[in-house]
Task: inverse folding
């Protein structure tokens, strides 16, 4: 059984067919790349998997269980956590508090425990976990800064930390390398590999080909809402259809 | 370490001074001002409970009506069941929470501006029930007969004993509200405010937490309503109009809603200010309005932000930057 199985997924926005009969399977502990020209439906696919959109047709199974029609927070509880494009963080909170929100699923509490302080042990564990993850991500000495004060690379690392600290099985990363310089990209690639080594499966939407080719063992190419090609980076690089899709605009 | 110690000492001194002031203040006031002090104490609870609702970024216009729900619940349970204030207050709170819980289903389908208008409409609907259902709620003339009890020879209808009673109830409620805000739940509410989608992606049920804030806020608003009505002795629908709601908004905004104590400063300063210009009867609204405009123009983060402004003007080192008002 594959970790994630998407079959014949279709998403229609009025007259626009954003996803057209998309099927793909993701195996445990791989880093899967999802590439394609702008508007190919990559982010739409993410939103459908993570429950932010409801698919028009088709099935999505996670660990053999259907997740279609579930709310985002339910899907997160099952183990799928997404990160967002650009720098979506709680900009007004500190680095530490950002990551602390990520521990919600293991540290949430009820009103009476909160008032009486009965959840102290749980919260202490959550704080410890946050410090471990911030250490792991190299953000520990910035923990008291506001998220908005961080440089771009650190903001992306923090976004990854927020997702990681929630303990996901599958992480959907939406363009984590966009707008980064070479140094930042290398650092982020290292972090992504480190996250995978902890046992997390990653699906990566990305335009930065250096990062995609360097990280992913297997790629899925989307174009106009359909799967155009699948294969190893080398196979995809030499695929006629893919070259056509990427260069047709330039011809 | 020594820095931490001094910090705590300063807080302890501030707390002690505050305690002396709130305990001794009614003895220096005239009868009319003692009344005002009681309403001010109750209004502190009103603004603090309202702030909890706004933590998720949703501003409602039903808070004043929630006071009324508590006031009617207290009056009806006193008149029909013969309950004293010790029981009518918790009952008022629970009624407010229940009404809020029911309203969550239609209201929390909306956010932002739509929620604002929806909550106003729901509040007016409740007020109309009080006006129209005369046999139960007494119509526009309302209900009378509710009063504070006499215990061990202390008449709680006297302003000074009732003030101390209010002070105790409000302090307890503020303590609970403070604990909630500074707990995990408070963090989650802030997170929903700044980026609901990100919070949801790590497992936060945003709807549930919006509902929770609305229900808890309404619970304490209804207790405030009960407190008020046991002192006034009668309840009418006109005590909870949009006009009173606007005052709540003004107190919270002028005080500053980014910190727990901001709205408290707002309601205290504006009440004292409003009272101190009483002699300029005709132009009083103009003075009041003018001051509001000035304070919003020059202190968009509220009166609460004055100390940190001073610090940054007179260069006592760097100050922590203020969070911006709106979501980006």
Result:
């Amino acid at each position: 059984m594959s970790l994630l199985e998407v079959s014949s997924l279709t998403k229609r926005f009025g007259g626009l067919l954003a996803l057209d009969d998309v099927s793909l399977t993701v195996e445990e502990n791989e880093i899967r790349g999802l590439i394609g020209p702008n508007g190919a439906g990559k982010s739409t696919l993410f939103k459908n998997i993570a429950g932010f959109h409801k698919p028009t047709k088709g099935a999505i199974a996670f660990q053999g269980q259907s997740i279609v029609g579930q709310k985002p927070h339910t899907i997160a509880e099952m183990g799928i956590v997404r990160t967002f494009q650009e720098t979506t963080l709680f900009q007004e909170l500190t680095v530490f508090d950002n990551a602390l929100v990520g521990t919600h699923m293991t540290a949430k509490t009820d009103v009476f425990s909160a008032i009486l302080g009965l959840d102290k042990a749980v919260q202490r564990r959550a704080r410890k976990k946050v410090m471990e993850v911030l250490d792991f991500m190299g953000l520990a000495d910035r923990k008291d800064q506001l998220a908005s004060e961080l440089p771009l690379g650190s903001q992306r690392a923090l976004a990854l930390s927020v997702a990681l600290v929630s303990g996901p099985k599958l992480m959907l990363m939406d363009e984590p390398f966009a707008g980064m310089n070479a140094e930042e990209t290398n650092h982020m690639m290292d972090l992504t590999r480190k996250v995978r080594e902890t046992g997390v499966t990653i699906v990566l939407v990305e335009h930065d080909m250096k990062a995609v080719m360097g990280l992913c063992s297997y790629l899925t190419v989307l174009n106009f809402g359909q799967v155009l090609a699948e294969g190893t980076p080398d196979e995809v690089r030499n695929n006629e259809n893919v070259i056509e899709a990427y260069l047709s605009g330039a011809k | 370490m020594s820095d931490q110690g001094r910090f705590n000492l300063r807080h302890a001194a501030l707390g002690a001074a505050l305690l002396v002031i709130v305990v001794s203040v009614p003895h220096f006031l005239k009868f009319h001002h003692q009344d005002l002090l009681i309403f001010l104490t109750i209004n502190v609870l009103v603004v603090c409970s309202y702030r909890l609702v706004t933590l998720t970024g949703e501003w409602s216009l039903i808070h004043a009506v929630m006071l009324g729900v508590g006031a009617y619940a207290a009056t009806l349970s006193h008149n029909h069941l013969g309950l004293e204030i010790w029981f009518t207050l918790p009952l008022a709170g629970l009624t407010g929470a229940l009404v809020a819980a029911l309203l969550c289903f239609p209201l929390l389908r909306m956010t932002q501006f739509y929620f604002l208008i929806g909550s106003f409409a729901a509040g007016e609907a409740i007020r109309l029930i009080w006006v129209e259902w005369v046999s139960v709620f007494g119509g526009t003339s309302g209900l009378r007969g509710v009063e504070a009890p006499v215990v061990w020879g202390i008449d709680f209808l006297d302003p000074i004993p009732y003030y101390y009673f209010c002070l105790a109830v409000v302090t307890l409620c503020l303590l609970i509200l403070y604990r909630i805000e500074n707990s995990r739940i408070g963090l989650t509410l802030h997170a929903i405010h700044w980026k609901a989608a990100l919070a949801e992606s790590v497992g936060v049920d945003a709807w549930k937490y919006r509902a929770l804030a609305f229900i808890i806020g309404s619970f304490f608003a209804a207790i405030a309503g009960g407190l008020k009505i046991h002192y006034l002795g009668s309840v009418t629908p006109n005590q909870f109009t949009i006009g009173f709601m606007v005052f709540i908004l003004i107190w919270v905004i002028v005080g500053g809603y980014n910190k727990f104590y901001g709205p408290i400063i707002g309601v205290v300063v504006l009440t004292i200010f409003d009272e101190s210009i009483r002699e300029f009867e005709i132009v009083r609204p103009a003075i009041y309005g003018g001051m509001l405009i000035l304070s919003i123009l020059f202190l968009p983060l509220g009166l609460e932000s004055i100390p940190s402004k001073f610090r940054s003007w007179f260069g006592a080192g760097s100050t922590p930057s203020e969070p911006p008002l709106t979501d980006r």
Summary: Residues 242-315 of chain B form one domain. The first helix of chain B runs from residue 2 to 24.
